[in-house]
Amino acid sequence: MGKRKKNKAKGPRHKRLNRKGRLQAAEHWIPTYVGKNIVKGYAKHFGVDKLCAVAELEMLGYTFSENYTQQLKDEQNQKQRAAEKRKAAKEMENTFWDDDSDETFAFIAGYTEGGAPYGITW
Fold first, then answer.
1. Does 27 reside within a domain?
2. pLDDT digits 0-9 by tens, 91-108
3. Where does the chain have alpha helices with state H?
4. What residues make up the domain containing 95?
5. HSE (CB half, 13 Å, CA atoms) of 61?
6. I want to staple 62 with a disulfide (CB 3.0 to 4.6 A). Which of 16, 27, 57, 96 is the partner?
7. pTM (2 d.p.)
8. Beta bridge partners of 110
9. Looking at the domain assignment, is residue 26 inside a domain?
């Protein structure tokens, strides 16, 4: 008899649903929601971003002001710019060490007159 495969955890079912499934499940979930901000609760419960939550709640008949949706778009753009900035900073950090190191030396302090590197080894 062969080995049995272990069931790997896939996460909660409501976070794995596609849009059609979320809209069906939301009809039953919304009446039980007791929080103050339905967009935030929907986004957290179903594992989507707030813009997607607004779009899907509008499909279910809820209305939101244009200012609120614009504010959510601005927040998402700020998060995206911050992530790009962090990525660029990390790349800059990596290029700094790549120029001053090789397979022998962790940090090359300089070179002798003959061209041999010296510094801190790994």
1. yes
2. 776 655 555 666 777 777
3. 19-29, 38-46, 50-59, 66-99
4. 13-121
5. 3
6. 57
7. 0.68
8. 118
9. yes
